[in-house]
Amino acid sequence: MSNQSSPAAERLLPVALLTLSGGLQDAYTYLRRGRVFANAQTGNIVLLGQSLFNGDWSRAARYLLPLTAFALGVAAAEFLRLRPSRLHWQRQVLLWEILLLFLVGFIPHSLDQLANALVSFSCAMQVQSFRQVEGVPFASTMCIGNLRSGVEALCAFLRTGDRQERRKARLYFCLILLFALGAVTGSLTAQRLDLPAIWLSCCLLALGFWPLARME
Fold first, then answer.
1. Is the dihedral of CA 105, 111, 115, 116 positive or negative?
2. 18 pLDDT exceeds 50?
3. Engineering a disulfide at 29: which of 38, 48, 56, 94 sits with its beta carbon 3.0 to 4.6 angstroms away?
4. 189-213: pLDDT as tens digits
5. Is there a contact between 8 and 212 (Cβ–Cβ < 8 Å)?
6. CA-CA distance, 171 to 34, in Å (whole number)?
7. Is 133 helix (H, G, I), strand (E, B) or coil?
8. CA-to-CA distance for 146 and 198, rounded, in angstroms?
9. 3-state DSSP call for residue 201?
10. What is the largest CA-CA distance in the chain?
11. Where are the alpha helices (DSSP H) in 108-162?
């Protein structure tokens, strides 16, 4: 099996589902797992630095763990990409994500740090494995890069009238909106379901899994 990305993985439908899931996961860990960001590791680095400066070692560990898990998730995705397998590596990544997030729904609040680490690991696998949509670089688990690229494309369109730049701007702003919608959905479901709310993310990832199979 090729270790290259599947063209199906760049279609808007699976990417939209992954982006919704990414927003949901970030809201879930922040609201229900001790105000830790699963995807936006920049926030965790800032909070880690603040904790170290204040000498709050237990709080520092709370932010160091998801950072480490994120790094390991990137490595795991690369391992799956390079390992020969009959099942395409990006589909393997989704299966592992679904399994890990399903387990997170059973982890009690007393083990929030473990839950955050597993979600961060899952997010890292996703962002490393799904990096383009319709030929355009993007991130499905965070917005800062998409926002920068979207504004850049919009400025290029306004300056040149290039329709390709307009298309890119629309695509990026659509992804940002989907991420925000996922975050809103995560907030609402977390209020109602508490810890099992992460299972909605599993459902979104499962829906994203099947288009990859049909389009390959």
1. positive
2. yes
3. 38
4. 999 999 999 999 999 999 988 777 6
5. yes
6. 33
7. strand
8. 24
9. helix
10. 55
11. 112-129, 144-160
